[in-house]
Specification:
With about 375 residues, the chain is of the alpha+beta class. It folds into 2 domains: about 150 residues, 3-Layer(aba) Sandwich (Rossmann fold), CATH 3.40.50.300; about 120 residues, OB fold (Dihydrolipoamide Acetyltransferase, E2P). It is about 25% helix and about 35% strand. It is built from 11 helices and 20 strands. Strands 6-7-8-3-9-10 form a 6-stranded mixed beta sheet, with helices on both faces. A hairpin with a 2-residue loop joins strand 9 and strand 10. Helix 4 packs parallel to helix 6. The longest helix is centred in the middle third of the chain and has 18 residues. The two termini are about 45 Å apart.
Length: about 375
């Protein structure tokens, strides 16, 4: 059955999708790790499962790989149910966080090993391994041992080894977490480039929001075993569906509010201190409803003065210089403290807005998001 699925045309594969999870539940005794997860991962997509530790993202990945059983529901791979198919017979491969390279083998031998175990001749395996090393730009290190390579180089070997058998789906379980910041940033670009070059569907697990936003075609945000939101990076960041997603993805100000009026697609909300802001209305928004308004720090600007003039009256509390930005905290008049991020344009914001200075807070049009409590 799987052989039939993998032989489908590219158009058929694109229509079916790579992976379908339908009402998937995973229980360990009385503990429910996944609660009716349903999603579709498209063919040739860089798809990310994102969430905090313990949210169930790795459990779902392991179920796709065949390392964990499905308690309820089903998982389909290119249209074929794989629940009863053992891990070694699934056309998927996994890249682990610790690389799992054989220390006594050369880099070339590490890649060849899995191919030979699948029945490929030694000469063919050597040729294929050489091609994979070229793909990850490590041909010159073929005879070195893993201990002679940097962490980033070892990760690229692990990727080459996982891609060598030409899996239909590549599973990546937090593969960059052991690398330092600059190396992680460099590897993000390499991973995305590899996915586009090979055309393999990547399913990437991470708790790092920056990784998810910069690499993914789509992101599934998970919390406590439930799917919170599924969408493109821009949809997830700009249009969070609830407080968890707004707070977990990027930085935001979550401001308690009361809905004062709903007029078509716009909801007028009252913040603490009586400040009024307009937000896109959401389902269920009604006069008197308690809610929260989310506004990203970079969607706020400051001007000096005390006249309302379209701005919210506030007082500067603190300004921190962080190189490319100034990170400010201001207190709304009789209201909450909010954070503002302003690009460093060379104007010396810190010298202009000293602590205690009256300022006006301007919320960018379209920069606010109403979230139901």
């Amino acid at each position: 059955m799987i052989g039939q699925a993998t032989a489908r045309t590219r158009d058929d594969a694109a229509e079916l999708g790579a992976v379908h999870a339908r009402d998937v539940v995973k229980r360990y005794g009385n503990f429910t790790a996944l609660q009716k997860i349903s999603l579709t991962i498209r063919h040739n997509e860089f798809f990310t499962l994102l969430g905090p530790s313990g949210c169930g993202k790795t459990t779902l990945l392991r179920m796709i790989a065949g390392f964990e059983s499905v308690t309820e529901g089903e998982i389909l791979l290119y249209g074929e149910e794989i629940k009863s198919l053992p891990a070694h017979k699934r056309p998927v491969n996994t890249v682990f966080q610790n690389y799992a390279l054989f220390p006594h083998m050369t880099i070339l031998q590490n890649i060849m090993f899995g191919l030979e175990m699948r029945g490929m001749s030694k000469s063919a395996a050597r040729t294929k391994a050489g091609e994979m090393l070229e793909l990850v730009h490590l041909s010159q290190f073929a005879v070195r041992k893993p201990s002679q390579l940097s962490g980033g180089q070892q990760q690229r070997v692990a990727l080459a080894r996982a891609l060598a058998p030409e899996p239909k789906v590549l599973l990546l379980d937090e593969p960059l977490s052991a690398l330092d910041l600059k190396l992680r940033q460099a590897m993000r670009a390499e991973l995305k480039d590899l996915q586009q070059q090979t055309g393999v569907t990547f399913i990437f697990v991470t708790h790092d929001q920056d990784e998810a936003l910069t690499m993914s075609d789509r992101i599934a945000v998970m919390s406590a075993g439930e799917l919170q939101q599924l969408g493109t990076p821009r949809e997830i960041y700009e249009q969070p569906l609830n407080r968890f997603v707004a707070d977990f993805i990027g930085e935001t100000n979550l401001l308690a509010a009361t809905v004062e009026e709903v007029n078509g697609k716009t909801a007028r909300c009252r913040l603490e201190g009586g400040h009024m802001v307009d937000c896109p209305a959401i389902k269920g928004a009604a006069k008197g409803a308690k809610a929260h308004v989310s506004v990203r720090p970079e969607r706020i600007s400051l001007t000096s003065g005390t006249s309302s003039g379209g701005g919210l009256k506030a007082t500067m509390r603190d300004t921190v210089y962080s190189g490319s930005n100034f990170e400010c905290s201001v207190q709304l008049e009789n209201g909450p403290i909010i954070r503002v991020m302003t690009p460093n344009s060379g104007l010396g914001l810190k010298s202009v807005f000293q602590p205690g200075t009256p300022v006006l807070v301007h919320l960018e049009a379209g920069g606010t998001r109403l979230l139901a409590d």
